[in-house]
Amino acid sequence: NVGMIAAILFDLDDTLHDRTDSLRRFIDDQHRRLIGSRVARDVYADRFVALDAGGHLAKSLLYPQLLADLDLRDFDPAMMTQDYDAHFHAHAAVVAGAHKLLRNIRGRDLRTAIVSNGWTSFQQRTIGALALTVSVDAILISEQEALRKPDRRLFLRAAERLGVRAEHCLFVGDNPHADIIGASKASMQTAWL
Questions:
Q1: Do the Cβ atoms of 176 and 54 come closer than 8 Å?
Q2: d(CA 178, CA 12)
Q3: Which of these, 171, 136, 167, 131, lies nearest to 150 by C-alpha position?
Q4: Nearest to 59 by CA among 93, 107, 17, 26
Q5: What's the pLDDT at 2?
Q6: Residue 67 has what pLDDT?
Q7: Can you tell me the distance from the alpha carbon of 87 to that of 101, in angstroms, rounded to the nearest whole number?
C-alpha cells in the first residue's frame, strides 16, 4: 500500500548515480591522458567496460588483465588503479531528474537514504561529487556497515537509522538480486529500475 510509505531508500550506482556514463567519461579521459595512440580509444573503452562487469571486478584485478589484454605491459597496474581512484569522481554524473525527485520526496516529509555496496571512501566521494549528501537522511555503505546487499540486515539497519519500520519503506534499485530480493527479504516494498 503506497499510502503506508514513510521512507524511500535508493541504491547508488545506476540508480541515482549514472555509473555507466561516468565510467565511459572517465575511461575516455584516462585514455587521453595516459594511453594516447598506443591503443584505439574504443578498443580500450570496450575492453575496460567488459572487464568491469558493471563494477563487480575490483580495479586492482581489472587493470592487470586490461593491460595484458591490450599489450600495455609497460604500464604499472597499481599506478593505473590509483589513477582511477584519484580521477573517477571528476566524471561522476547524476541520473537525470534525481535531485528533483529527492527534493520532492523530502517535501512530502518522507525519509530518504542511500544504501550501497562498495568501498566507503570511494562511495562517499561519489555521493559528494554528485551533491547527494544533503538530499538524504542516511547513507549506508557496505564496507562501513560490514554487511553487503542482499543481506536483509543491511536493509533493516537502514530502516532503523531512519526511524521507520521496514514494511513502511520503498527500496529503489537496479539490481534484481542485491536490491530487489534483498529489500523484499527485509519486508520492504520495492521498485526495480
A1: no
A2: 12
A3: 171
A4: 26
A5: 55
A6: 98
A7: 28
User: Which residue, 84, 94, 137, is CA-closest to 115?
Assistant: 137
**Cβ atoms 62, 48 nearer than 8 A:** yes
Length of the chain: 193
pLDDT at 69: 98
**pLDDT (0 to 100) of residue 34:** 97
pTM of the model: 0.92
Check if the beta carbon of residue 112 is closer than 8 Å to that of residue 9. yes
Q: Reduce the secondary structure of 159-179 to three states and give it as a string.
A: HHHHCCCHHHEEEEECCHHHH
Q: Output the nine-digit C-alpha cell for 43.
A: 578498443
Neighbouring residues of 107: CB distance < 8 A, sequence distance ≥ 6: none
User: 30: which residues sit within 8 A by CB, 6+ positions away?
Assistant: 80, 83, 84, 87
